[in-house]
Amino acid sequence: MVEYRSNLFRPENEDPFKISRSKIELFLECPKCFYLDRRLGVSRPSIPAFTLNSAVDVLMKKEFDIHRNKGTTHPLMKAYKINAIPLAHEKMDQWRENFKGVGCLYKPTNFWVFGAVDDIWINSKGEMHVVDYKSTSTTAKISLDDEYKQAYKRQMEIYQWLLRQNNFVVSNTGYFVYVNGRKDKAAFDGKLEFDIQLITYEGNASWVEKILKDIYKVLLSDQLPKSKSTCHYCSYRNSALNFEKN
What we know:
Order of helices and strands: EHHHHEHEEEEHEEHH
Oligomer: single chain
Number of domains: 2
Mean pLDDT: 93
Helix content: 25-40%
Distance between the termini: 54 Å
Number of helices: 8
Strand content: 15-25%
Strand order of the largest sheet: 2-5-6-7-8
Largest sheet: 5 strands, mixed
Number of strands: 8
């Protein structure tokens, strides 16, 4: 049984340090915010939970579980001509559970890296496809080109990397299942209707191990790293501090 440090990184501790997919993204957003969080215990302010999105996520998983249990193809797969079925695996529930997920020990850093997937499909060749559910409500064309959606791509690539570290055959092709709430109805009538769109993405996880080594180097240092110029949190802290000094 692997033992983990409960929270903060301590250079002298030899136990594997648990680092989530979301904390890797935090490092990419701003190394200073990451260091404050994982080394010093000063986290960014929390944001409210997106409960409607979570409800859609749960229902989507239940829907695909019906086909997972039957070993059948979901109609969405048929509509997009995807020769696959939802993966039935004994660890599927664990892989989808927050704070557990798919994990591996990355020995060069002694990190236990993990992340919770939404779904995994398997094709006729025995290759896994990582699937991510996304909820929105927009009349604009849905794509992965927006700047903030680059994090979605990295999220999928980390999941692909994690599964490969567990010796699974994983396709570079992943799928985003977008659920788009419709606003064109005459009334609410106690229900919200959605259009569903599938977007294919070709992942490239070659960056993951380099970033893990960069994170390790930063955590080992006693020096606070510089803020990223685009970090709104650091900008706020600096502005507030300047006003207080003056």
